[in-house]
Known about the structure:
By secondary structure, the chain is α/β, with parallel strands linked by helices. Among the domains are: 2-78, Ubiquitin-like (UB roll); 102-246, Nucleotidyltransferase, domain 5 (2-Layer Sandwich), CATH 3.30.420. It has helices at 22-28, 142-176, 190-196, 243-251, 330-342, 369-392, 408-412, 415-420, 438-448, 450-462, 472-480, and strands spanning 2-7, 10-15, 47-52, 62-64, 74-78, 102-108, 112-119, 125-132, 181-188, 217-220, 228-233, 259-264, 268-274, 277-283, 304-311, 314-319, 327-328, 358-360, 366-368, 402-406, 432-436, 464-465. The protein has a six-stranded mixed sheet, sandwiched between helices. β6 (102-108) and β7 (112-119) form a beta hairpin. α4 (243-251) crosses α10. The longest helix has 35 residues, at 142-176. The structure holds FE2/S2 (inorganic) cluster. Residues 35-37, 39-46, 64, 66 line the site of FE2/S2 (inorganic) cluster.
Amino acid sequence: xxxxxxxxxxxxxxxxxxxxxxLSFLQGKGYAIAARCGGNGKCGKCRVRVIEGTFEGxxxxxxxxxxxxxxxxxxxxxFETEGGGLTYTAPTRTETxxxxxxxxxxxIGTTTLAFSLTDLKSGRELDKFGTLNRQGAYGADVLSRIAxxxxxxxxxxxxxxxxxxxxxxARFAEKFAFKKxxxxxxxxxxxxxxxxLGKDVHGIGQxxxxxxxxxxxxxxxxxxxxxAEEVVxxxxxxxxxxxxxxxxxxxxxVEEGVNLLADIGTNGExxxxxxxxxxxxxxxxxxxxxxxxxxxxxxxxxxxxxxVRERDGKIVCTVIGGGEATGICGAGLVDAIALMVRKxxxxxxxxxxxxxxxxxxxxxxxxxxxxxxxxxxxxxxICAGISVLLSTAGxxxxxxxxxxxxxxxxxxxxxxxxxxxxLFPAALAGKIEAVGNTALAGARExxxxxxxxxxxERIARxxxxxxxxxxxxxxxxxxxxxxxxxxxx
Length: 489
Ligand code: FES
């Protein structure tokens, strides 16, 4: 079969086997198509426009590519999304060992892959970009990826990220005219690192939640089919506390006082330094801050609404990159819900008060009742996680110096609204500092300096992991935080 694909202004043609799934085919050709529900036909993010040809399930000229099989020649238009969360505030030059050559830091997020090309001698960042993790076709969160691996799809998922890494290295090599990368330093959550190395993730998904490896792994690029002399997979603390937060703690200098780093992505991971010790935990916040289970949700990408205000009785939004709003990202969602609470569109339990069950922020972008519910679960998990971690470590709110908020959400976030909707405890309002993508910045530090890898190994080893899922105090705080309090109004 001949498939023609339009993306932006570019048209390409491919041969495709009869009966192939359209989404898998397109992703296999490198199109960054979001598939947040893992191909279950629920999220609508994988929609393509049918210009020529027919597909079963086509409606008004569009079809969900995850449910469509190629049965004849066709011409489709795809809507690609580049990943967000790349605009970090950490310094773009890092200390080095003075080696010659190029290195790439890779942060494997469940939703987004972030790549940074760095000159190993000067430590200067030369280029960076983000793209959606193609494993998204196998599910939006870690647990669905583990389930997919249990069904024998681990190899395909490994190949997704390896192929994207090969493409990234090739893109940098072409732009900066080098032949082979000296080093690739990789961080991510523990499941992502296991899938990257083709390891079994079954133990991570089941009690007692055991990882196959946590320590730093050194291997040659050849072993993974990558054009790099060396690959370093950075160290993790536990099955649910990966090297992305370990190196994030390193780069944000959490240990320079009583500080807490909260990295909010598909999960909410936190690490606290107090009494000369490190305490770590994670909460299953769900992917709502990355837009995955929000009807008009999207990552922090071009076209996403990232702030919502009311001015003279009118709703005013800002859109990343300008232009028409195509969705709403986590930071926009925080603002929108804060506004809905203030205006009484939802009551303190989160229920719509006028029975419409939809609040339009722009012509096309709205917040639904289901979105508000997903948000409540997520914000409550983060807020309860922070308060229980502090109390378990015996740190009163006023003793905390800084609450660093990392991840794409952190960069765009309106702190007042975040406290207002109960995402963070009100007592910490003045201590919040957005630090952007600390995982990528930390991986760059380790890429350029062996001492930094040692420092990350020490943090990974010394952090005491506190399992909140077993904590009655967490459950109480989680339920208590679910509503919107009076301070939200
Ligand atoms: S509807 Fe196709 S991936 Fe969600």
